[in-house]
Design a protein that fits this description.
three-stranded antiparallel sheet, 410 residues, alpha/beta, metal-binding, TIM Barrel, Enolase-like, domain 1, Mandelate_racemase_N_dom, glucarate dehydratase activity, EC 4.2.1.40
Length: 410
């Protein structure tokens, strides 16, 4: 079997409301690039990458000269053809590689008639647990609904998520307001939902000192871990020395060089693997195997997935033994998806692992065209800007005049 073509289509899919984070805002929608890898046997594999637009489509088009004629079964060769680590200093293709790898695994599974997890060692769980992803949110531009800003709005939002999806673990995405206010929010969540697990992620915006203060204040709560409170391996190490909380990251350990440094001189206890950031499903499994050998826990990070990447997260979660935590997903924030059947269903905070051949999902061509047209109409948006805070930008660590005002809607 040989690859004959690669097609990339950028889409934008609406969110329930704009999602606020320490570095900016998701502007009421996610932008994703959907990749289709075609073969001479008529099998088409699906991949997905965050962001996109014309530049992403051009980047995938450029990979045709590398990959037309390539056997999709040769996944290790695929890596070296397009993401040689030395060459990648000049043409960083890790996320491109991930999307192509997803598609090749999809092709292999379809060819052999087996789901992707069978190619990855076999599943040890039939469904994967998810944490709610609780963002501070601006109101929806069209409806005026969906704001999450006050403590009671956060509590009501989590209550709704529990009722609708069954979540029992909750991740508060912080770094928007002053940490003293977000600490009040977090403590109130622990008070109102005493049986549920909690985690806090300010996207590395806090100083070491602020991080230690926050960690000390929550040590008695029902925490999964404290995620990326501050920036850098050394910053995380300094926080870890002063708290017994487990620290987690998806920012400072995202490749094997960083993982080796973390093992030699520990700064982080839980590695949040991302099938895009690490360059595919297989590198995540390799990293998880190393973590298992050195007694590090793992979970799965979310980078704003639609159904194709969600499927890769489910297959990864199905095969990892050292994954004691519910995984992350923005997925419940979406209004729609581009796969046949629409959004996958949560039951009791879990999603079933797809069992059809390959990744187990197929494109809804009408939805793909609809959201490709919407992207052409709306375009992209800068991840690191807030459309309602003119001239604002974040600092690491943040300073007093950079925090949002919890008393203002916009």
């Amino acid at each position: 079997m040989k690859i004959t073509d690669i097609k990339a289509t950028t889409v934008t899919v609406p969110l329930e409301a704009p999602l606020r984070h320490s570095n900016g805002v998701h502007w009421g929608r996610f932008v994703r690039t959907i990749v289709e890898v075609e073969t001479d046997e008529g099998i088409i594999g699906l991949g997905e990458m965050g962001g996109g637009g014309e530049s992403a489509e051009i980047a995938f088009e450029a990979l045709k000269s590398y990959l037309v004629g390539h056997d999709p079964f040769c996944l290790e060769e695929l890596k070296w053809k397009i993401a040689n680590p030395t060459a990648s200093l000049y043409n960083n293709r890790t996320q491109l590689l991930a999307a192509i790898e997803f598609a090749c695994i999809d092709i292999i599974g379809k060819k052999l008639g087996v789901p992707a997890y069978q190619l990855l060692g076999g599943k040890i769980r039939d469904e994967v647990s998810f944490a709610s992803y609780v963002f501070f949110r601006y109101p929806n531009e069209e409806t005026g609904q969906g704001e999450v800003r006050t403590i009671e709005q956060v509590i009501e939002h989590v209550r709704d998520l529990k009722k609708k999806y069954g979540f029992t673990s909750h991740k508060l995405k912080g770094g928007v307001f002053h940490p003293d206010y977000e600490l009040k929010v977090y403590k109130k969540l622990a008070e109102r939902f005493p049986k549920d697990n909690l985690r806090y992620d300010p996207n590395a915006i806090l100083s070491v000192e602020q991080s230690v203060k926050f960690a000390k204040a929550i040590e008695g709560l029902n925490n999964d871990y404290l995620e990326d409170p501050t920036w850098g391996l050394n910053g995380m190490r300094k926080v870890r020395e002063k708290t017994y909380l487990s620290l987690a990251t998806n920012t400072v350990v995202v490749n094997f060089e960083q993982l080796s440094q973390n093992i030699l001189n520990p700064a982080v206890d839980v590695i949040l693997l991302d099938t895009t950031f690490w360059g595919g499903i297989r590198p995540c499994i390799k990293a998880a195997n190393i973590c298992e050998a050195f007694q590090y826990g793992v979970a799965v990070h979310s980078s704003g997935e639609l159904g194709i990447q969600l499927a890769t997260m489910l297959h990864l979660g199905a095969v990892l033994p050292n994954m004691p935590f519910a995984i992350d997903a923005h997925y419940h924030q979406l209004q729609d998806d581009i796969i046949i059947g629409g959004k996958m269903e949560y039951v009791d905070g879990k999603i079933k692992v797809p069992t059809k051949p390959g990744l187990g999902v197929e494109l809804d061509r009408e939805k793909l065209e609809k959201y490709a047209d919407l992207y052409k109409k709306l375009g992209g948006y800068p991840y690191d800007r807030d459309p309602y805070r003119k001239d604002w930008y974040p600092l690491l660590p943040n300073t007093e005049d950079k925090w949002a005002d919890e008393n203002k809607v916009k």
